[in-house]
Amino acid sequence: MAKTYSLKFWIIFWSIAVIFLAGFYFFLEIRKQPGKIISQAIDFLPLELSQKAEYQSIAYFAEYLLKKDNQEKTFLLLFQNNMELRPGGGYIGSFGILKTKNGKVMEIGIHDLSNFDARIKEIIAPPYPMRETLRIDSWKLRDSNWSPDFLENAKKAEYFYHLGEGQENFDGIVAINTAVLNSFLKITGPVTLPDYSGIFTSENAFLSLEYQVEKGYAQQGIDKGERKTIMNELAEAIMEKVLALNNSQRFDLAKIILEDLNKKNIQLYFKDSALEAQAQKSGWAGEVKSSWKGDYLMLVDANLGAYKSDYYILRSFDYVVDLSSEIPKANLKITYIHNGKVKDWMTNNYQTYLRVYAPENTWLTNSADFGNVKFGTEFGKKYFGTLFTVPLNSTKTVEFIYTLKDLDLANYDLLIQKQSGISELLGKITVISKSGEKKSYDIRLENEWKLSEEK
To answer: From the CB of residue 373, how many other CB atoms can be counted at a distance below 10 Å?
Structure first.
């Protein structure tokens, strides 16, 4: 009997295929050429300057991965389900170990974290408020991405991997959100299977598969042990479409993966300092900009309700900064819309732990409706966090008022960074200058936004 794999296995499999087939496909034919020549060739492509920089970054990584140096390279792959959002992207349900050599995939192994985490000794207390909400006594790999900074998460994941007696030493770590599967299907197009009703598309594939392996199989009279055979059939159907893609479609696949990198649906960490510097330069390293000294804002949610409710959550924010007073003041309102209607196997009331990151010398003066606010400092920033619930089919707005000290008011600038796992974040920025002049900006945040680039 053919070996069957879980839904998580195939999502990671498809994600890896995207990275290797799409991201680097147009370099394969010229892989014997030095990376410098590839990079120079990109200069002549009819692309915008920013696009050229992105493709040159891909060329840089492609040269590393495709180099025929007889050196085995090993990567830890973290699958993050951003329908259950965590600070680093999403709940980690499984991980993969990928080995390459001379530009070829030599080996891949996929591991379910419910089994692997059982090997990790319960010696590390979880950060607040995991214990209080998830009722867990120890911190393990599945919850390791508690930071909004991927470098921190990558190191923590490797640390827990070795605590679980993992034997590999990694050259790099890659986090992949579920949105990458949807990107894959946008290019291959809809998929139908002979033994299953309906069409699998980029809009419904993950939900359809989740439902099939959780509920649908029983209604169809399929034995529980066979409920995941649909994954094999769907994988074969999609790979057939991949092999049939023409060059134009493959280029489209490369472009959509660039979008996932730019939206932080894929985050990269390399042990090699030059590669890591390139990832940071490209904005693909999931980095919290610790060197930024101006005004700063990052909103970081952690879904601690153990449901996939983020599928139904819409977020937006309104940030007003007043530089006309003696001490600059900021008013931040964040609105959550829960579009889930009733409790079911997938959703419930949305319970989140929100952390707001602001400049280090920020002082919170008021937080509407919150009595228990936690404070901390990291990455040269101050954060204040609070735990709250957004009921089903409701809207909730949380508000924070704080002062901003030690800012260069003559050269005021603002940087806003988006959390991985949120596809986009709508916001309105209003800046009241020292003279009282007011300017507003409506933004659609996909990675980061800088005020000085709008002037």
So the answer is: 13
**What is the rounded distance in angstroms from the CA atom of residue 420 to the CA atom of residue 148?**
8
Distance of alpha carbon 431 from alpha carbon 407, whole angstroms: 14
Identify whether residues 268 and 416 lie together within a single domain: no
The token pair at 289 is 């900009």
Q: Tell me phi and psi for residue 318, to 5 degrees.
A: -130, 115
What's the rounded mean pLDDT across residues 321-342?
Answer: 95
Rounded Cα gap, residues 420 and 260, in angstroms: 10
Domain of residue 335 covers: 295-453
Q: Which amino acid is at 310?
A: D
Structure confidence by residue, pLDDT tens digits, 128-140: 999 999 999 999 9
Element (DSSP H or E) covering residue 251: helix 247-262
79-97 pLDDT, tens digit each: 898 999 999 999 998 888 8
Q: 420 with 150: CB under 8 angstroms?
A: yes
Say what the pTM is.
Answer: 0.86
- Looking at residue 444, its amino acid is R
Q: How far is the C-alpha of 363 from the C-alpha of 373, rounded, in Å? A: 13
Count of structural domains, the chain: 2
Please answer whether residues 128 and 77 qualify as being in contact, where contact means their C-beta atoms are separated by less than 8 angstroms: no
Amino acid at 361: N
